[in-house]
Amino acid sequence: MIRAKLIAFLILLCSCIQKDHQLILISFDGFRADYLSKAETPNFDMLVSEGVISEGLIPVFPTKTFPNHYAIATGLYPENNGVIANNMYDPVMDARYRISDRAAVENPEWYEGEPIWNTVEKQGKKAGTMFWVGSEAPIQDMRPSYWKPYDGDVPDSARIDSVLKWMTYPEEKRIDFGTLYFSFLDDAGHWYGPDSEEVIEAIQRADSLIGYLVNELKVKGLWGNTNIMIVSDHGMSSLSKDRLIILDDLIKVEDVDIISYSPAVQMNVKEGKFDEVYSSLKANESHYNVYKREDIPDRYRLKNHRRVSQILMVADRGYTINTRAYVNSRSNYPSGGTHGFDNNDPEMHAIFIGAGPDFRKGLKVEAFENIHLYELMAWLLNVEPSHNDGDLEKVFGMLK
User: Fold this and answer.
1) Domains of the chain, with CATH numbers?
2) Which residue among the candidates 41, 63, 65, 179 is catalytic per the annotation?
3) Separation CA 55–CA 366 (nearest Å)
4) pTM of the complete model
5) pLDDT tens track for 188-236
6) Is 65 a catalytic site residue?
């Protein structure tokens, strides 16, 4: 209790003397916590020596792209922000959400909670999102001052240039907070696996981009006034055909509607078939765990939302769950790597690096949950956070 009161006092004291520094949040999708040990990364190493690195960033479950990016943005677990998977069904809306469906992605009804860019804008500051989950939708009937619809063909350096342009506008127009997103590391992990030469090349490509960013910040006179947070949404695990679970061997696949796919499979069951389907999955439980919605472990912070399906299957690390038809239609399936496994698994843990005028120097901290990043960003931006599941005390030790 005394420690908590002391930390609360220090937070209040620091906020009174805190300067207004700009903040860039950068996501390298699929950057596993241990990837820096796989390649020469002088630019990342420089930021680590000048700032803070964690032993890992613990993702929310499922360890997928959309749930984790939106959890970072809102500080809310999936059951509290509505983004419970990359693919969802909402029984009230009677609608499906797929990450490839532009109309769904841009529909604010799918997004609950308050993302950090809204928190910034509501308090008289400006935000610019060069791609981030949720930023393309008018959540709470508002958008960032500057935003771009996702376009994977935009060159890496052009993304950086856009955010730096927004940061160097005249005072009345310039942003206080910006986001950047890059997917090529996740792509390499999926195609070739986390131990591949292609992933090493992608790590080095990310390192070069950090070098470009830092140099441009220095050229534009922003370096000493900018905090940088580098994050990822999840890690990556290797797959193989030797670790394959065929749904047809367990149930009649025509009795289920698969909403979200391997390795965290969510399915609804046709009327009158639930007991038969669940009993068969439970009786054959090997290299996966199966749960009724109400029995999903509390630590997943998932089950208390209407969008969660009736049954959840979670594959053991490295295993794939799918139908025979899907497997037979792809000669090289499964291969490479994927994510979506239990968020306690170290291979699912992501990267966190923080550097800049408000971060301590040369500090390594324990792994922490990514839902605390919203509170951290609110503090760095000197704005009052909205309701969230995070705790600034969990990350306050990395700040000056």
Assistant:
1) 20-236+344-398 (3.40.720.10), 244-335 (3.30.1360.180)
2) 65
3) 5
4) 0.95
5) 999 999 999 999 999 999 999 999 999 999 999 999 999 999 999 999 9
6) yes
